[in-house]
Amino acid sequence: MTEYGRGQGSEPWHPADPLYGDQGWGQQAGHGQAAYGGQGQYDPQQAYGGDWDTGQQGYGQGSGYGQDPGYGQQAYGGGQGHGQGQGGGWDWDAGSSGQSPYGADPADPYGTGQHAAYNAEEPDYYNTPGAYPPPQPPGRRSAPEPDTGWDAGPDQGEEAFFNGGGDDEDDYDEGRGGRRGRGGKKPKKRRSGCACLVLTVIFAAGVGGVGYFGYQFYQDRFGAAPDYAGDGNGEQVTVIIPKGSGGYTIGQKLKDAGVVQSVDAFVAAQSADPKGKSIQDGAYVMEKQMSAASAVDMLLSPTARANLAIPEGSRNAAVYAKIDKKLKVAKGTTAKVAKQDYKDLGLPDWALDRRGVKDPLEGFLYPSSYAAAKGMKPEDVLKDMVARANDRYEKLDLEGEAKKLKLDNPWQVLTVASLVQAEGKTHDDFRKMAEVVYNRLKSTNTETNQLLQFDSTFNYLKGQSNINIGESEINSNKDPYNTYTRKGLPPGPIGNPGDVALAATLDPTHDGWIYFVATDGMHKTEFAKTGAEFERLKDKFNASQSN
Q1: pLDDT surpasses 80 at 501
Q2: In terms of Cα–Cα distance, which of 199, 204, 172 is closest to 188?
Q3: Are 228 and 255 in contact (CB under 8 A)?
């Protein structure tokens, strides 16, 4: 516990004394605690000889200046520790020494009021002839010299910094318990120029890194999106746009292919184009490094779309040939893949291992538009087609509908739909055509005795599309696909039905139709319920052919 007014003197120091208060009389260096009657103590964290101008450090660390036998060893002159810039009785600004109101220390025969450092010998300051100005004792600073206007040069301050000037952290003599005198002072530590350079480089790198990421942050949120200029560099690339893709998905596909420089640039260009939202799915042959606006224009151009359109009712053989042509592969390549790898292309279980079928994929190359361009593989195109067929058939619930229609399985539903598609000339015919199929399959059918008698099935097995087939040719062929000689449905679909034919198959008419004839041979189909009506339709057909 710090005690004020307790020491070897008879009375405490009065607060009215001019040296009490701001001058920090008797304060312990580094902590500012009064130590009347006590000896100033050293704080290892206090730097000796600190910056005179800033006043951040006390100077003098209880040097014992001005001892008085009546008041003990006063720590007069101790710095206030955390740098109020005031030492005991010494005015740094004016450069003058405060005067002690007491007599000189008996150990100071000259009455100067100066005292040696703790355990140090008292140097002879005034016995040296010709010493001017007189040397100053430790813990005191002489008055500032007048400014003569002389410039020491730019190297003075720089060399002091890099060579360790002002670094006094080693001035404390731990072995002797106090500050070293001038004669016994340890060499000061020297700051390494290399270390300073490393710190400078690290600081510069940090500032540069912050600047770079700050720039990127600004660009990402406020800057213009990176974009190429022009219509491309001439290097072609195929880009596949999935069905239902939005602007960001399309932009990412283009960026990944090297067509546009950034997704944001493409989205901005698409939004600026009134037709930008009408970009269709499919394959597009484009060029690398196109401006976003040019990419949008090309995606809206029909000539850039490298899609393969599959018409309703197309047979697989025709589809394979189109794929070969689009992919620019040898003729027969796609058909070979379909035959060898059909089980790996995504067919549902109910479509596998069907006996007697000529092509397991028939009916699963769904009529639509598909991406197909040079560089793509046939199996990828086929998988896309089968996947789309599966999706459609699942939505229609062919398995559930088969039971309602009294068919064995969804495979038969698909086969009926292919017959409806092949025999009907217009969409208006499809529901009536579906009823004809179901009525002829009935066991109660005494008109055709469960024979479908469709030319389309015979043409399929022959790989042709004739409308005039001789009766002898038809009646002599016993192939399962010949519905003139084989009862019931053929082994499988004879083509790829579209949406209208599928819908008609699931919702046939119920008018009693059992016969039909393309009376003009091409575009018009007429239906009949009885054999007599059928004969009149045949005569009409023959008349059209003779004309």
Answers
A1: yes
A2: 172
A3: no
Q: Rounded distance, CA 319 to CA 519, Å?
A: 30
Burial environment of residue 390 by CB neighbours within 10 A (0 to 12, 13 to 18, 19 or more): middle
Q: Which long-range contacts (CB under 8 A, 24 or more apart) does 17-21 make?
A: 19/88, 19/89, 19/98, 19/101
DSSP 12: P
Q: Which pLDDT belongs to residue 41?
A: 43
Q: Measured in Å, how far apart are the chain's first and last C-alpha atoms?
A: 134
Average pLDDT over residues 512-528: 89
- Collapsing DSSP to helix, strand or coil, 321 comes out as helix
Using the predicted structure, report yes or no on whether residue 336 has a pLDDT greater than 80: yes
Query: Rounded CA gap, 283 and 344, in Å?
Result: 23
451-489 residues labelled b (16+ CB within 10 A) or e (exposed):
bbebbbbbbbbeeeeeeeeeeeeeeebebbbbbbebeeb
Sign of dihedral through CA atoms 467, 473, 479, 482?
A: positive
Rounded alpha-carbon distances, angstroms, from residue 118 to 5, 62, 115, 127, 475: 24, 9, 9, 22, 135
Q: What is the pLDDT of residue 210?
A: 63
Identity at 193, one-letter amino acid code: G
Q: Are 363 and 498 in contact (CB under 8 A)?
A: no
- Please give the share of the chain, as a percent, with pLDDT higher than 90: 48
**pLDDT confidence of residue 213:** 65
The three-state (H, E, C) secondary structure of 347-373, written as one string: CCHHHCCCCCCCCCCCCCCCCCEEECC
Q: 3-state DSSP call for residue 305? A: strand
Up-side HSE of residue 485: CA atoms within 13 Å toward CB?
13
Per-residue pLDDT tens digits for 309-331: 999 999 999 999 999 999 999 99
User: What are the start-end ranges of the E strands in 33-185?
Assistant: 90-91, 96-97, 172-173, 178-179
**Omega cis (within 30) before 133:** yes
What is the residue-wise DSSP string for 490-526? -SS-SS---HHHHHHHHS---S---EEE-TTSSS--E
239: tokens are: 């880009």
Closest CA to 482 of 510, 524, 454: 454
What is the distance between the alpha carbons of residues 122 and 60, in angstroms, rounded to a whole number? Answer: 16
Q: Which has the minimum average pLDDT: 83-97, 440-454, 505-519?
A: 83-97
Question: pLDDT grade, residue 466 (50/70/90)?
Answer: confident
Q: Is pLDDT above 80 for 434?
A: yes
Task: Considering only CA atoms, give the Rg of the chain.
Answer: 53
User: What DSSP string describes 235-286?
Assistant: -EEEEEE-TT--HHHHHHHHHHTTSSS-HHHHHHHHHHSTTGGGPPSEEEEE
